[in-house]
Amino acid sequence: MKKIILMTIACLFIFSTQAFAHTGLESSDPAQGTTVTQSLDEITLTYMTKIEETSSFELINASNESIDITNLTVNDNVMTGNVEGNLENGAYKIVWKIVGIDGHPIEGEVDFVLNAPITEETVDETATETAEETAVTETEVTEEEPAAEETASAESEEDKGSNTGLIIGIVIVLAAAIFFMTRRKSK
């Protein structure tokens, strides 16, 4: 009986992290909080486990405008996409949404700053874009994304919930083990 209890406790500790684990972002290019000093052509996000094909991301500039991403591909735990055109220097964020192998949707952000050398081509494109923006008189209505704090808070609450379940499970198993051990000794 002792062997069964000890094996149960050992299995609980060995496999518990896998049962309650969610995938997360392992690394990104560009990385969180970095300053990119050359033109940005491709974004690569690498996750801790395999992700579903329905996963995606978008690139948002400091004005909260979405930048076109092409050739978005998911290969096991790596998601890549190509940036269309030359980006202006400034702050950007990559907003990603994935479905992990465990079926749970997860989202997050990667913030970075672009400070690449300005070329003649970039200057020409910027002048053309500015002229086009000036000509546009209609106001665009954009849907607001949830704030980063709300997303982080929701992820934190989800993690607390899974940890609470783990702790309760451990306490129950330990209580049962102690009960059976004391009962067996009293016989």
From TrEMBL:
GO terms for molecular function: copper ion binding. The chain crosses the membrane at residues 164-182. GO terms for biological process: copper ion transport; response to copper ion. It holds the Pfam family CopC. One of its GO terms (cellular component) is cell envelope. Residues 123-132 have a biased composition (Acidic residues). Keywords: Copper, Membrane, Metal-binding, Signal, Transmembrane, Transmembrane helix. It is found in: Cell envelope. Residues 1-21 form the signal peptide. Gene3D superfamilies: 2.60.40.1220. Residues 22-113 form the CopC domain. Residues 123-160 are annotated as: Disordered. This is Copper resistance protein CopC.
